[in-house]
Amino acid sequence: MNSNNGNGAARSQGEPMKILVLGATSGIAEATCRLWAARGASLFLVARNSEKLAAVAADLKVRGASYVDTAVADLDDTSSHPTLLTHAINSLTGMDVAYLAHGILGDQPRAEQDFVVAEQILHTNFVSVVSMLTWLANYCVQRHSGVLAVLSSVAGDRGRKSNYLYGASKAGLSAFLGGLRNRVDREGVTILNIKPGPVKTGMTSHMKGSEKFADVNVVAKAIVKAVDKRYDVLYVPFQWGPIMFVIQHIPERIFKKLNL
Amino acid sequence: MSTSTLRPAAHGTSSASADSARRLDTSFESWGRFPKYPAHLVPMHWQQEFPANIQGLHNGALPVGMGRSYGDSCLLKDGNLIVTTAMNRLLSFDPETGILTAEAGMTLAQILDFAVPRGFFLPVTPGTKYVTLGGAVANDIHGKNHHVAGTFGNHVTEFELVRSDGSHRRCSRTENPDWFGATIGGLGLTGVLTWVSLRMRPIVSRAIDYEGIQFHGIDEFLALTEEYKHVEYTVSWIDCASTGKNFARGIFMLGEHAQVPGDLKPSSEPKLVFPVEAPGFALNHTTVSAFNTVFFHKQRKPRVQSLQDYEPFFYPLDAVLRWNRLYGKSGLLQFQYAIPWESARQGTIAILTEVAKSGLASFLAVLKAFGDVPSPGLLSFPQPGITLALDFPIKAGLTFPLVERLADMTRDFGGRLYPAKDAAMTADQFQTFYPQWRQLERFRDPVLTSSFWERVTGDRPNL
Ligand SMILES: Cc1cc2nc3c(=O)[nH]c(=O)nc-3n(C[C@H](O)[C@H](O)[C@H](O)COP(=O)(O)OP(=O)(O)OC[C@H]3O[C@@H](n4cnc5c(N)ncnc54)[C@H](O)[C@@H]3O)c2cc1C
Ligand SMILES: NC(=O)c1ccc[n+]([C@@H]2O[C@H](COP(=O)([O-])OP(=O)(O)OC[C@H]3O[C@@H](n4cnc5c(N)ncnc54)[C@H](OP(=O)(O)O)[C@@H]3O)[C@@H](O)[C@H]2O)c1
Predict the structure, then answer these.
(1) Does domain B207-423 have CATH number 3.30.70.2520?
(2) Distance CA A62, CA B115 (A)
(3) For chain B, which residues make up each domain, given as ranges?
(4) Fold of A12-255
(5) Chain B residue closest to A50 (CA)?
(6) Which of B122, B37, B35, B138 is nearest to B84 (CA)?
(7) pTM over 0.90
(8) pLDDT surpasses 70 at B394
(9) Which of B44, B69, B387 gets mutated to test ligand 1 (max ligand atoms within 8 A of its CB)?
(10) CA angle, B423 as apex, B417 and B424 as ends, to 5°?
(11) What are the pLDDT digits (tens) for A69-87?
(12) ipTM exceeds 0.90
C-alpha cells in the first residue's frame, strides 16, 4: 500500500482500512471494493440478495481483502438499521469508512401515475439513506473520525422530465449531505458526496447508448482516491462537474422547453 | 425466420421487463467485423440470471464473451446475445495447486492482472488476452505451447453448465464427462458456462527468454520445429506475399518463461486505440508486401536472442486496441487450417502457393506445429500436424472465392478449419471437417444457437 495516499481515511498506521459497504452488490460498489480489497482492506458487506452477495464476497476475499463478513438485509427496512450497523461495526471492530451505494432507478413513467411507485424511489434512495446516515454520523462524531461516502448522482443537480423522481431523491440526498457536512466536518468527520454521470452497470444496461457510458472501473478508481483525500464532493467522470454547472445555470424559461 | 426449427421460444411468457430490456442493434461485433448482424443484447451480471433473463424471448439465444472470434460463431442474427463480460468474479484461488475458479465472463487479461503478481501464468493463452474464460472453453483455444501443453481445455478441471430448462451441471473428467467433452469446443451451444476452474502454471518473472531464427521455406521450418520441440513456446511468422527465392521465408520464434526471478508487477493498460476505420485501400498487395519485407528484415541477423516481457511476446497486437479497424468497414476474413502430418508439408506448400498467386496477401500469417496431446473436446479444432492462420481484407469478388478454394484444398489434404476464425466455409465443408457435429447437436440446448451453427448445419441458406 502506498503510504502517502493510503492514509487519508483515519486509522492507525499499518492496520487495514475498515470499510462498511451498504448495497455491496451494486456495480459501482463492487468495482470500488475490488480496489480496496487489493490493498488488503477489511470489509463488511450488506446486500439484499444472498446469492449475489456470496459471489461478491468470494471475489473480494480472493483479491486480498484481509477480512470479509456479510449480512443480508433489505435496507428499506429502516427499523433494522441500528441493529444492523452495530453488528457490522462489531464485526469489523471499528469503522473508518462507510460506503452507501444502494439505490434504484425506478420506473419514471409509472411513478408519474402511481404515487406508490414514486414513494418507493424516494424511500430507497433518500429515506433509508438518511436513516443510516443519522446513526453513522453520530457514531463518527463520537469518535471524531470517519468518512461517510455516499452515492448520490448528477441527476440530483437538476430535475428533468425523464427521471425527476430519481432526481428528486438524489437532490434531497445531496441537500442532506451538504447540511450534514456543515454540521460534522468540524468534528473530524468527512462527508463525501459522490455524483456520478451515467455509468455502465446493471442499473443502466437496458438504456439506449449505454455502451458509451463511463466504465465502472474508472469511476471506482476516482472514488477510492476521493475517499483517501477526503474530498467533499466528487463529480465522476470529472467532466460532469462543468457539464452540470452549465445545466444548472440554464434559465428555467428555456430549460422547461427542453427534452432532457 | 422466427419459425426456424433451431429457435423455439424460451420457456415461460415474456415479462414486461424482459421486453423493455430488448433493443436490436449491431453494437456487438465479431472481431472480423464480418458479417454484421443485428441482435438483442441481454447483459448478464450474475450467475443466477440465466435462464430467467431469456424467459419468453423469441428467436434463440447465444452466450457470448468479448467477441474476439472472427466470424459468426459469436453472432446470432435477430436473436438474443447474452453478453457475459460483467459476470467476472474470482471465486477461489489455491496457490498450493494453482487452481483458480472464476466466473465465465472474466477475461484472461483480468486473470493475468490477478495471477502474475502472485507468481502464476495462464496454462495456455491465445494471441490476445482480451478473451473470456467462457470463450476460451467454448472454442477450446490453443496457444504457442500446443505441442507440449495441448489446448486450453486440457487445463480446465471443472465448470458449471446451466441449461435453458434451469438445470445445473458440474462437469469434469469424472462428473458428467460427456457434457464436459461436448462443452469444451462446444461453440456455446450446450448451455451457459457460469464458472470455470483451471490449473495455472507457476512463473518467477514476467520475462520470456526469447529467440528468433530466420528460415527460408517449409523444410527449414520443419527442421526447426523438430529441433526445438521441447521448448515450451514456438510459433512462426511467415511471409506469404513473396514468391521465388523468398517463398515461405519467415521467423521461427521461441520462448520460455525466464528461470531467473524477476519483475512480477501487473501490466499497464494499453494506451493506443486505432481511432477510425482505415480506408478500404489501406491494405493492398504493395503495403502488405512492404510490411512483410520490413518484418522479415527487422530482425537483422539470422538469429537473435533477448529477454522480452510477456506482453509483446504473447500479445503483440493487444498494444493497439481495436486494431481490426485497420481493415476498413468491409472487415476481414480469417482462415485457419490444421492439416495432419501425413500431408502437412505438401498441403502447406500448396496453400501458400495459392495465396501468393492470388495477390491477396495476408498481412499476418502465423504458422505452427500442433502436438499430439489429445484435445478433450468433441469438436476441438487442433489435431497433430501443421496449422496456418491467415487474414484477408474483404475485397468484393476476390476474397470469398479464394477462401473457398483454400477450404477445398484443406479438405483434400485431410485437414479442417477453425470455427472461431471462419465466416465462409460451406455446410458441406464443415460437415466433412467435423463429422462428429451430429453428436454435438444432441447436446445442444434447444434454445441456443448461433449464426455459424445455422450456416454450417444447413438450417438456413448460406449468408
Ligand atoms: C488477435 C487475436 C488472436 C487470436 N489468437 C488465437 C490463438 O492463438 N488461438 C486460438 O485458439 N484462438 C485465437 N483467437 C480466437 C479467440 O481466442 C477465440 O475466438 C475466443 O473464443 C474468443 O473469446 P471471446 O471471449 O471473445 O468469445 P466470443 O468470441 O464472444 O465467443 C466465442 C464462443 O464462446 C461462446 N461463449 C462465450 N461465453 C460463453 C459462456 N459463458 N458460456 C458458453 N459459451 C460461451 C460463444 O457462444 C461463442 O461460441 C484470437 C483472436 C484474436 C482477435
Ligand atoms: N449507474 C449509473 O449510471 C449511476 C449514476 C449516478 C448514480 N448512481 C448511483 O450509484 C449507486 C449504485 O448504482 P449502480 O450503478 O452500481 O447500480 P446497481 O448495480 O443497480 O446497484 C444498485 C444496488 O442497490 C441495491 N439495492 C436497491 N434497493 C435495495 C434495498 N432496498 N436494500 C438493499 N439493497 C438495495 C441493489 O440490490 P439488488 O442487486 O439486490 O437489486 C443493487 O445492488 C446507486 O445509488 C445509484 O443511484 C448510478
Answers:
(1) yes
(2) 11
(3) 207-423
(4) Rossmann fold (3.40.50)
(5) B48
(6) B138
(7) yes
(8) yes
(9) B69
(10) 75
(11) 999 999 999 999 999 999 9
(12) yes
